Amino acid sequence: MSAARLRLAALAVALLLVAVPVVFGLVDGRTGVLVGLALSGAVAATGVCAYVVLRRVEERLRVLERRVARAQRPRQQAVAAQPKLPKGLVTQAQLRKERDHVAKRVQDITNLFDMVPIRAGIPPLGLWTASADLLVELVDRFVETRPATVVEGGSGVSTVVLALAAREHGIATRIVALEHDPEWAESTRRLLARHGVAEYAEVRVAPLGPTSLADHHTPWYDESALADLSEVGLVLVDGPPEGTGPRARYPMVPLLHDRLARTCTIVVDDTARPGDADVVDRWRPLLPDFEFDTLRLDKGAAVLTRA
User: With contact defined as beta carbons under 8 Å apart, do 195 and 164 qualify?
Assistant: First the structure.
């Protein structure tokens, strides 16, 4: 019981000590006063006993509270000593998952730099550019299959990495990147020159426009950019941008189908997005002799192969 409650109880007892004799005196004169005093004494004695008991209970509770606090202190200190979780991560399982993801990205970048001699700066991987794990997959298949012609939907770091791999591994190939943005195309050309591989890859400006596909209405690269291509053994589908329209990347396979080499690999980025995953599904009837596999990469990917 708190001190405030004890004071309130004492006040109530005092009022009883005064009120009882007065009430009895008014009712029955002197005899009433005596009876009232006797009752008041009994009430007072009871109040004193109750007060003593309550004080002892209160002291006992305080002792118990101190013991509980001492018992909990080591546990509280242990919890406080644990490492703080990063913002947005609320469980140890999530922390381990994030740690494993970071370790994977470090390994992907290390593998990439071991596979190709990157000696100059490149844009950050995995933001608006290809992720490191996609580039590792792309270079690995490029070196293994040694295609005569490579076609990219979009240009950038992937173009540079493929050109570096062609020079490093002595692969006689033709790398053609389709790019709808003239400024971005020029930026990729400068990046190729900075790395000393400008002669290994061609960046073609192909403005977005209507296609010859009757059932597709989203703009795609100018089809004339495909006119002189043949024996395409490796395709990277990483453009046009998603905001171009529904199934923006669909035309790559139907428009390039007759130009694909007998041994061919098609790598599709960003299949974690429903729209790009749907595009891959729509290609299945067009590529009955290809195997379709899903790659567990940072942005999701699919690989279609014909051996």
Answer: yes
List phi, psi (to 5°) of 209: -165, 180
Pairs from 35-43 (Cβ < 8 Å, separation ≥ 24): 40/16, 43/13, 43/16, 43/17
pLDDT tens digit sequence for 160-184: 999 999 999 999 999 999 999 999 9
| pLDDT digit string, tens, across residues 71-81 | 666 655 655 55
Burial 126-153 (b: 16+ CB within 10 A, else e): beebbbbbbbbbbbebbeebebbbbbbb
Crossing angle of helices 157-168/182-194, nearest 10°?
30
CATH class, range 102-306: alpha beta
Nearest to 3 by CA among 67, 55, 64: 55
Rounded CA gap, 23 and 2, in Å? Answer: 31
Number of helices (H) and strands (E) in the chain: give both, helices first.
7, 9
Amino acid identity at 80: A
Of 92, 130, 135, 230, which is closest to residue 174 (Cα–Cα)? 230
Residue 44 makes CB contacts below 8 A (sequence gap 6+) with 13, 17
- Sequence-distant (6+) residues with CB within 8 A of 235 are 150, 151, 152, 153, 252, 256, 260, 264, 265, 266, 267
Q: Which residue has the tokens 């130009």?
A: 259
Domain locations in the chain? Answer: 1-82, 102-306
The torsion angle over the Cα atoms of residues 52, 57, 62 and 63, rounded to 10 degrees, is 100
pLDDT single digits (tens) 188-243: 999 999 999 999 999 999 999 999 999 999 999 999 999 999 999 999 999 999 88
Residue type, 14: A
Q: What is the pTM of this model?
A: 0.68
